[in-house]
Amino acid sequence: MRECAALNGWTDVGCSAHKVHLCVTSAMGIDKVSNTAISKCVGAASRLVGHFSHSPMATGELQKRQVQMEPEKNPVKLIQYVKTRWNSVFDMFDRLVQLRWPVVAVLSDRNVTKPFDAKALDLKDEHWTMMSDLLPVLQPLQVLTSLYSAADQPSASAVYPTLWSFVKVGYAYRPILTDICYA
User: Fold this and answer.
1) CA 125: distance to chain centroid?
2) Which of 176, 182, 84 lies closest to 139, judged by CA?
3) How far is C-alpha 31 from the geometric centre of its chain's CA atoms?
């Protein structure tokens, strides 16, 4: 990469995974304060996960509900979106969709969640739908970033073909993204 940069007069060849992260957060409108449907969904989901992170009672009850609803599975925790952590929107959405009904059950339990908090934290149906719709769009980015992050310095011979494949696959999701972004 250094030779390629020197031959082409490039002063900086940045981290590919970081560049992908910047592109995705910008496209989703979550890189700044915005009023897009996606940024509202990310904010609402993040507040909900934050409630469980700060309430040991709610977290314990969420684990109990998971065991009640699916005894064959080990209980898992919700994952918080972190602005600087790659793929954390995907991770948060994926876990929330997976745990939708235990989360709703905990929010509905007045012994655990106060009515005011439950009303403020309960996600709208369109948020749940948007999270489900975005998962197949964000999943290739998860794979791409994981691939780039696996190596200390991924080579251009890996970066360019994978980016090109992603761009080609991304066109298939254009109608879904248009519906979500302009809803």
Assistant:
1) 18
2) 176
3) 13
How is 103-146 classified by DSSP, letter by letter?
HHHHHH-TTTS-HHHHHHHPPPHHHHHHHHHHHHHHHHHHHHHH
The dihedral sign for the CA sequence 95, 96, 102, 103: positive
**Length of the chain in terms of residues written:** 183
Measured CA to CA, the distance from residue 71 to residue 68 in angstroms comes to 6
- For 93-135, the pLDDT digits (tens) are 999 999 999 999 999 999 999 999 999 999 999 999 999 999 9
> How far is the C-alpha of 30 from the C-alpha of 19, rounded, in Å?
15
Give the Å distances, CA to CA, from 166 to 21, 138, 157, 158: 14, 11, 15, 12
**165 close to 33: Cβ distance less than 8 angstroms:** no
Q: Which two tokens stand for residue 150?
A: 């696996």
The CA R_g of the chain, rounded to the nearest whole Å, is 19
Which residue's structure tokens are 């995974």?
A: 17
pLDDT of 130 reads 95
Residue with the larger pLDDT of the pair 17 and 61: 61
